[in-house]
Amino acid sequence: MRLFGRRGWLARGKGLRRLGGGLARSWVEMLRGLGQGFLDLLGAEWEQLKAELAVSAKRLGLGVGLLAAAGMLCFWLLGTLVYFAIQLLAIWLALWAAAGLVALALLVVIAVVALVGLHTLKRIENPIETVGRRWDDHLDWWEARLVREDLTAAGAADEAGGTDDGDDGDGEEAR
Fold it and tell me: Where are the domains of the chain?
């Protein structure tokens, strides 16, 4: 019986059916599943990245809004507050001392609002760092999964093969 060649047993397809055509089909299905799984994983990663970037954008908006609020307070209320406070303090102090105290108080309020806004902006993660972090997490996950599968496969092969390397799992070799 010829196995190879144009008229051989394997060339006509009988060999694959008899020698595990189901195995060949399962490999094809596994490869298709792997491709689909990879596409699903990329889609999920993309959605997660969009969600994280949306959170960063919201924080950016909040920080910029707080800084804008601090600027508006400085511009719109400055004249009114200065005039009122100076006139009030001028009752007990000299006019120049009253103006100095009001200016100092306004400086403190502006500094607090600006520091809160800057603190909010510092909490924003750089989009490049977000992508890098997600990529590293992704690679760590794949590495851990492949190592776990390798260890599982190696453990199954050792149990099936009955090989004894002298290691019973307690850290010491058997004598």
Answer: 44-156
